[in-house]
Design brief:
By secondary structure, this protein is an alpha/beta fold. Helix content is 33%, strand content 18%. The longest helix is centred in the first third of the chain and has 14 residues, at 14-27. The relative contact order is 0.16. It binds 2-phosphoglycolic acid. 2-phosphoglycolic acid (PGA) is lined by residues 7, 142, 147-148, 176-179, 197-201.
């Protein structure tokens, strides 16, 4: 199975999401070997769930979860509250680490809570120095220099880093950083990459679908 994961980050109004969904639905053709994951802002989660869950091989997940279980933590969104709503969450995106001060300990706590509520973490690492908590299956390797810069990391460098990262047995290895339909096939050709975590290209449904189609064998 290949995974094409689209991270909207903090983008799009509700009206813009309507347009995105309409266009995506028109263009999306499911494939038994490709799973599409979409990670909208939490404010659009219900809307995307309602409009996309009837589509085959599409899931909707959260961009993060709280490192707290529940309680007096204004503004936090807990794994407990997402339980039964999403089955996947991104944890440890480098933007959360850098801009919101999320530490390894906080990220480990997030993983614990997510797993407690059967939410599968998609755990982001920047390189082989970021520790990976136990029980994580999806590893998204995202070199910071490649994120949002238009300079994707050459696949051979990604494979070299994959060999250095202490991956859990049976890991699903995802690459992220300036992925688009043009550079995607070279990663798949290596046979070492199970999918992509995509930022900018997600925002344009046609470009995103082009990557989904590139993942079809
Ligand atoms: P990008 O973002 O595709 O815009 O480089 C990737 C990411 O941050 O996951």
């Amino acid at each position: 199975m290949r995974y094409i994961l689209g991270n909207f980050k903090a983008n799009k109004t509700r009206t813009e999401m309507h347009t995105w969904v309409d266009e995506f639905k028109k263009m999306y053709v499911p494939d038994p070997n490709v799973t599409v994951g979409l990670f909208p802002q939490l404010s659009h989660l219900d809307y995307l769930l309602e409009s996309l869950t009837s589509l085959q091989n599409v899931f909707v997940g959260s961009q993060t979860v709280s490192s707290y279980a529940h309680g007096s933590y204004t503004g936090e969104v807990t794994a407990q509250s997402l339980s039964g709503i999403v089955s996947y969450t991104i944890i440890g995106h480098s933007e959360r680490r850098k801009l919101f001060g999320e530490t390894d300990q906080m990220l480990f706590d997030k993983v614990t809570h997510a797993k407690q509520y059967n939410i599968e973490p998609i755990y982001c690492v920047r390189n082989d120095q970021d520790p990976i908590p136990s029980g994580v299956r999806f590893i998204a390797y995202e070199p910071v220099a490649a994120i949002g810069t238009g300079k994707n990391e050459p696949p051979e460098e990604t494979i070299a880093m994959k060999q250095k990262i202490k991956l859990p047995a049976g890991a699903i290895f995802i690459y992220g950083g300036s992925v688009n339909a043009e550079n995607a096939p070279a990663y798949f050709k290596t046979g070492e990459i199970d999918g992509f975590l995509i930022g900018k290209v997600t925002l344009d449904p046609a470009q995103f679908i082009a990557v989904v189609n590139a993942a079809k064998k």
